[in-house]
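STRUCTURE REQUEST FORM
Protein name: Alanine--tRNA ligase
Source organism: Streptococcus merionis
Requested output: structure tokens
Priority: standard
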Amino acid sequence: MKQLSSAQVRQMWLDFFESKGHSVEPSANLVPVNDPTLLWINSGVATLKKYFDGSVIPENPRITNAQKSIRTNDIENVGKTARHHTMFEMLGNFSIGDYFRDEAIGFAFELLTSPEWFGFELDKLYMTYYPEDKDSYNRWIELGVDPSHLIPVEDNFWEIGAGPSGPDTEIFYDRGEAFDPENIGIRLIAEDIENDRYIEIWNIVLSQFNADPKVPRSEYKELPAKNIDTGAGLERIVSIFQGAKTNFETDLFMPIIREVEKLSGKTYDPDGDNMSFKVIADHIRSLTFAIGDGALPGNEGRGYVLRRLLRRAVMHGRRLGINEPFLYKLVVTVGQIMESYYPEVLEKRDFIEKIVKREEDTFARTIDAGSGHLDDLLAELKAAGKDTLEGQDIFKLYDTYGFPVELTEELAEDAGFKIDHDGFKAAMKEQQDRARAAVVKGGSMGMQNETLQNITVPSAFVYDTLALDSDLTALVFDNEAVETVQAGQTALAVFTETPFYAEMGGQVADHGLITTAAGDIVAKVVDVQKAPNGQPLHTLDVLADLSLGQTYHLAVDQKRRYAVEKNHTATHLLHAALHNILGKHATQAGSLNDEDMLRFDFTHFEAVTAAELRAIETQVNEKIWEALAIETIETDIDTAKSLGAMALFGEKYGQSVRVVKIGDYSIELCGGTHLENTSEIGLFKILKEEGIGSGTRRIIAVTSADAFKAYREQEDALKEIATTLKAPQIKEVPSKVASLQEQLRELQKENAALKERAAAAAAGDVFKDVKEAHGVRYIASQVQVSDAGALRTFADNWKQKDYSDVLVLVAAIGDKVNLLVASKSDGVHAGNLVKALAPHISGRGGGKPDMAMAGGSDVSGMDKLLSAVAENL
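Status: completed
Returned output:
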């Protein structure tokens, strides 16, 4: 067996398939682009869906990649198994309508067994296949695989909803009988029994059908272009080359584990319980790569996943005795391990460390809150005479506060309580089912459109004109290629060349008119998108008959294009300003450049302050007024990068690219259309800044006449306020408002004092009515108050003297009911008493032993509530 590093295995895979005519596709960002069905890029094929469903035809139908991926639908298994990870690399080779079964299986056999490449022993390899797929079986036999190493498995058919599907054949590596103590053999594969002997290293999906959920599998139609989709786990293959018991003993993880050993003073034992080491090593890889790709910890979506991973890793660090922030110190180690293929990790090291450290510091405070929550729960149970911590409460501690079940169990047992494991497992299963359902929902691809795929006539977009004459070379109506289209219909059209910009890179499509040589209007262009083979595909509202082969005059709506260009050019200025003022991490995460506004999404870990927004807006306007020249350069990708050109998020660039340079201020790769000088923008105004997801912010802005209109509307509003305040000039409005605010504060103080005196007076009467039950003195009364705060004032006054042991107050405020319980008695828990009384007013509530509140909606239940106090003491 060869001894190869993980970097060598990855590179050998890519080199092999490149030698077979495949283009090497770089690993894409972990955050999906223009794919709302996925939370993360979760496989090698996830970024290639547009090729498989036929919406885009690749330049080379043979593709290979090493794609970083994240799957988090069963995080709790990480560390418990030998090969489960949240982040992993999927090695893949893909054919888009080119080679199929024979070549794909042949490539796999050669790469795995040839001494020039991986050089695995053939007798160590086993393959599964779909029982009805005799062709795959026969192909393996042709290559010399022993029939006893070929196992039929009914589940070997890949399909997720509608779209490309087909049988698959999996490849397993036999690690030997030492990993099969019961000598079960290949039944472990055939019956899908979890085991450490046969390691699945490669899955080849033979995508040959268009799956249709409406018909049985036997009636699926053949794809017009059959595809090959494969996936091989880098971590698994590396573990075989390096003779590792689990994936964690490879060079992808061990350097991280060694650093954790130094930080903890504990030793990693390959044969012992190393779950905490494994969890930390796995999770810091996911955190490092995801944050480097623009995802940030938060309370929802991707952010919630990252926060959960970080908190789980921190808690396992505590189990190893690491009680201070430490994960951020491991970022550099992750970067060094992956540097050969992912140099960007070390390039972004400072930012990633900053985010991880900040999140660790925040979680340290959260742990204190979680501990307090657990203490309250245990106190409530003790007061109620219960001895078991419920599963839902355990899950809340786990899910909200990041407490591992083991930690909850340890603390609860120390306090003399049992753990409801079954209830916790049920709550966990509900969450897993929801997560898995979301994964399934996001996996399917669209159906291939053969009509659009078959449009191969060339077409070019012409940048430097807004009108030209061009021949109509392709025409589609009702998804059929046609010769003519009649008036009143909607059609798709391709011309030999066009001045109409197809929607791309955030810039909306051009609109305009199609006319005859005589000037008669024959169609309106209402949209332009890229056809599968890359041509601008015009959507036409047909006003007069259109025919193939005819020459037409194509004219773009100049006013609309000019407005779009103002907003697009302003977007470049905004992007540069964000970099300068917020930091280099504030990179584009999506954009829209329309005729009446621009929308720019960017990565940032907190709301942009008013001062920062003002500075951003000012800087953009300064660059507009400096009248910077805008230069467009056509060059190759390497030259563009050497010039310092910034690539836009989600865009894919070929070898030939366009660079948009705005003075010495901004330089970006961009295929859109732009102005010639920034002065043409005129004015820039930010309308809104908001968060749209964890770690992602959005700015909405306007330019030119729309910006002037926005300023005018603000001016009119200020003038109206000035008139109301009787301020002679707008500049006097702030001082007038400040004066009114001061008057309001004085009135509020006076009002509060009056309320307090009134409450004290009322309390005097309420506190006289003292009753007793079960040896507990209590006051239970309905009071008239304006808000819940007044109830607290009653309670504060009650605490000052020894009126009673328990106070119960209920008040109707509007159409709602508020309940307050305060207790000085060790035998009466205020929170438990509130829970017992609240149902009488159709309410819920809770609180601490000394003070608790509840809200309800049934005013008629107040008398019953007061009557029930004695029996619940």
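Reviewer notes: DSSP finds 24 helices and 35 strands in the chain. Residues 349-383 form the longest helix (35 residues).
Form closed.
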